[in-house]
Design brief:
Helix content: 10-25%
Largest sheet: 8 strands, antiparallel
Radius of gyration: 18 Å
Length: 280
Amino acid sequence: MKILKHKNKLAVFTTTLIALAVSQTVGAAVITFGGQTATDGSGKTSSEINADNTINDISDGFFVETFDRATAIDSLPLTPDDSYNVAGASSGCAINSPLDVTASDASVLNVRKGSSRNVAAAPAGDNSCYAYTTPSTVGVDSFVDIDYTNFLNSIGSTAPSLAGSSVNYLGFYWGSVDTYNSFEFYSNDILVSRITGAELLAELNGTAGDQEADSSNVYVNIAFDASEAFNRLRVVSSGIAGEFDNIVVGLDKRDVPAPTNLAILGLGLLGLGMSKRFKK
């Protein structure tokens, strides 16, 4: 059950870097917390795109899923999917990107606006459409897979410069984080990394299920190195519920400004300092 607590909002969210790895990989994905305030009423979004959740040009290599029809990417061939909408609570909602979305059970994935007690809580400040997971059996993991494989295979026909791309950046708004929520990242069927609600809450001193605090309503950014580039996102939850919005992916063929040597050194040292705590 979600709980509502009143806490002082953090005026500035200090960037936190976490190095996560699992046994199948040698490297470590780098995770940062914090994005920008979304101007379309959806709470928080990635700093890699416009604040209203639009992109300037698909050749820039960033793509966003907001679960709102209004922000569909017109230059991509797609048909908005409203089959996951909640009756009476999903006006203007739809899965609006050309991704393969599957769930472990027909009722596990839902798209809606607003909160409903004992059902789902909108991420803090999010008055738009968002997605959430509901387990088939409380206490038993259910999951939603968001697969980018076909999207990656076909993107070159729309944006030739992105042909052959892999996903090396992922951002998402994680609402009222619970210890029974987690996000997993796969390269085909190989788990390359994960972040659990318990880890996030411990790092940010957050309270599970808090619907307002910045420490439990968090924009999460993940940078993957070449060995960890993934093509499938899995959202897992064994409780009510796992809420998320504003999924942004970045492709590795995009134009990325090279950081300075000093910045590279600083990030490398910080990643080393944090990696021991979070390695699995």
